[in-house]
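User: Can you help me understand a structure? I only have the sequence.
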Amino acid sequence: MKYVCTICGYVYDPAVGDPDRGIAPGTPWEEVDDDFTCPICGADTSAFEEA
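Assistant: Let's start by predicting it. Here is the structure, written out as C-alpha coordinates:
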Protein backbone atom coordinates (compact mmCIF):
# COMPACT_ATOMS: atom_id res chain seq x y z
CA MET A 1 0.00 0.00 0.00
CA LYS A 2 1.34 3.44 -0.97
CA TYR A 3 0.71 6.63 0.99
CA VAL A 4 0.25 10.07 -0.54
CA CYS A 5 0.76 13.50 0.99
CA THR A 6 -2.56 15.29 0.71
CA ILE A 7 -0.81 18.66 0.57
CA CYS A 8 1.68 18.21 -2.28
CA GLY A 9 1.07 14.77 -3.77
CA TYR A 10 4.38 13.12 -2.76
CA VAL A 11 3.94 9.34 -2.70
CA TYR A 12 5.63 7.13 -0.12
CA ASP A 13 6.09 3.68 -1.62
CA PRO A 14 7.15 1.07 0.96
CA ALA A 15 8.86 -0.98 -1.76
CA VAL A 16 11.19 1.97 -2.42
CA GLY A 17 11.35 3.49 1.07
CA ASP A 18 13.19 6.79 1.31
CA PRO A 19 16.90 5.90 1.38
CA ASP A 20 17.93 9.57 1.25
CA ARG A 21 16.22 9.99 4.63
CA GLY A 22 17.35 6.70 6.17
CA ILE A 23 14.22 4.65 5.42
CA ALA A 24 15.21 1.35 3.85
CA PRO A 25 13.32 -0.20 0.93
CA GLY A 26 10.67 -2.58 2.23
CA THR A 27 9.80 -0.41 5.26
CA PRO A 28 6.00 -0.38 5.73
CA TRP A 29 4.33 2.93 6.54
CA GLU A 30 3.47 1.67 10.02
CA GLU A 31 7.21 1.45 10.80
CA VAL A 32 8.10 4.94 9.56
CA ASP A 33 9.07 7.18 12.51
CA ASP A 34 6.39 9.55 13.80
CA ASP A 35 8.75 12.47 13.19
CA PHE A 36 8.87 11.73 9.44
CA THR A 37 8.00 14.75 7.33
CA CYS A 38 7.22 14.97 3.65
CA PRO A 39 10.49 15.56 1.78
CA ILE A 40 8.77 18.00 -0.57
CA CYS A 41 6.50 20.18 1.58
CA GLY A 42 7.47 19.27 5.16
CA ALA A 43 4.01 18.04 6.20
CA ASP A 44 3.91 15.56 9.06
CA THR A 45 2.58 12.00 8.87
CA SER A 46 -0.99 13.11 9.61
CA ALA A 47 -1.14 14.63 6.10
CA PHE A 48 -0.67 11.21 4.45
CA GLU A 49 -3.49 8.95 3.25
CA GLU A 50 -3.55 5.48 1.72
CA ALA A 51 -3.33 5.66 -2.03
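Now, to help you interpret it: The chain is about 0% helix and 15% strand. The longest strand covers residues 3-5. Let me know which part you'd like to focus on.
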